[in-house]
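Hi Prof. W.,

I finally got the Amine oxidase prediction working! I wasn't sure whether to trim anything, so I left the full sequence exactly as given:
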Amino acid sequence: MNPKLPYVLLVGAAVIIFILSCMLLSRDRQLPSCESQHKTVEKTGPTNQSLVFADLTPEEMAQVVRYLQGNLGVQLVEASRAKPSDNCIASVDLQVPAKAEVLRFLDGGGARPAREALAVLYFGNQPDPNVTEYVVGPLPTPTYHRDVTVHKYGGKVPYHRRPMLGSEYEQVGVFLQTVAFAAAPTFLQEVLEYDSTNVVFQITAPHGFQSGDRKSWLILFQNVSGFFVHPVGLEVLVDHSSLDISRWAVSRVFYNGQYYRDMAQLESAYVQGRISVEKVRKAPRDGDFSSMKPRAPSAALFPLQYEPQGPRYSVRNNLVLFQAWSFAFGMSVSTGLRLFNIRHKGERVAYEMSVQEALSVYGSNCPGGMSTRYMDGSFGLGRYTSPLVRGVDCPYSATFVDTHSLSETLRPSTRKASLCIFEQNLGSPLRRHYSNLQSLYYGGLVNSALVVRSIATVGNYDYVWDFIFYQNGAIEGKVQATGYPSSSFLHGDGLRYGNRLWEHTLGTIRTHSINYKVDLDVGGVKNSLVAHDMAFEMTRAPWSPEQHIERPRLTKKVLDTEDQAAFRLQSKMPRYIYFAANSKNKWGHQRGYRIQITSSAGDHIPEASSMERAISWARYQLAVTRRKEEEPTSTSIYNQNDPWTPTVAFADFINNETITNEDLVAWITTGFLHIPHSEDIPNTVTVGNSVGFLLRPYNYYDLDPSIYSHDGVFFTNEQDFMACEINPLACLPKTASCLPNFPPFTYDGFQNM
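And this is what came out:
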């Protein structure tokens, strides 16, 4: 062997190591952290004005509680421990100032409106039990309170209309275990293998058939993960209308298709062998088929998105700035996510966009299922806003915002990361054209939009609420439904009311209806409602009079009154319907914003129903009314427990008033029919369960405003489309090559439950 060979090999290895080291060092230099890149956020107007819409801070909530404790002259019990016969604070939320005051402040240089809170109190410990609402202010140091109940609702709110507190649910559960179940020990032990821990209940609403009722069906399930699809066949009707818990009673019992007077009669019939028993196989604690634990191991990581030059939006307190957009956001305890003062290119296009209600109407051949009409605002779409999981509920790099609430407690609570904001590349062009005729060019714009999201988990259902802002001036309101389907015990003719999901599980048919309030201010506060559509007309061909042509033409109509602007759910509605401004664009057209609804709603409950007026907003896919301070919401949290005498009946808003050149509000209803099927096990997916609406500029601008987006791409066959200054996409290896700095994964959803 050549004695020099080892030295040659050593030198060669050293050279290779040196080259590789240089390459690695060079690579590290070329890949800085994405967060170190320059970021640009366009600024739009003063940033502190949005605080007029800001949710109450925990400190402000605490001040309101202290004020009420010291100034009402009654003892207030912690709501989480309150009996029906106690006085307590049910909730404290922001009292949104009157629109006229806010606009004077925002646009006219007027004084900032007083900051106030709205407190809902239950007074059970007095001769005339009732629910009272107080406005408390000014914050942060309250000095006054005023009772606004009669002004808002035309009278006192009877006590039986109050939404159930968590403490009442617990008290009903204790009654079920200690009183009701004590009357049927043999049945429970032998049929359900009851051990005081292995069953849970879901309560139905509304609670009865007439005003004053508070009788609730309790549907029993196995106490396992995903219990909603594990019914055991037993349902108990409990009368908990008395403020004295010792007077509560069982009114009826249902088991496997048969009704009994009470649990004692059920026990007697079972012992005597007069019951058809259907034993349910005991499920493991993880729920078995209802477990959401993945059935496959982790593999290649799913795609992630990142921001190579940092976020292109900013969040300052409750103000969001994104390209030409700006808006304020908040979270109502009852109705959830809401936006205010929405501006595009500095001009307000909407004063308010907010969720109003989520209604579900169930069918079944079991009593609990057939009597269920959930109005989720009564339970609290904001109260049950859930902490979000980074990377699943929202993109990993989204901005997460904590929300605060005071509900059924004397202390504010914080829900970590319960709202997220992110820019999303939707993976498709917002607009594009490839020209291969005459001139050769390509022009396009990536569809990148800003999303504001919250997710409310109300019992078995999870609602994903989005407001989406596009570069062409359009806004989308969207809701996606997921979570577990509610179910009944399969027996008899159950398949008339749904599909079989498991051995004893009937996935029951239900309708979902979602109502939104959209207060558009197009080119100013005063607007009119205009409908454009099409009709075919027959005409002779001018160049060949003996021939006929059928051509579509534009139809136009101004909708003058509220009655004309109320479109029933399944009726034909003009395909172009828009809020028209008093100003015109360059081409002489009234500037407008069009309302476009996406819905597959089921039928509305018959208007002959004794409870229909409480949900009469769901009669209409769209209703446009004059805006009034005394009509702030389409429903009330009190409608759930007394729909027979509704505290707010939306149908009364529509009284044929003129709506030409007025401050108008659009009430939009969207929804879907859900017939659960086997693929709803273990739970429902969002695909196909997404509905909502779009607000789109209609002659509002002189041309598409997205043409001014910095994201546009254009090049011709005569240009060097590999040059960065011509085509920014050619520079991605340079401008977008960075190392995303993903923050550590955290989750606070199991804290402070």
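Residues 7 and 86 are 93 Å apart (CA to CA). Does that look reasonable to you?

Thanks,
D.
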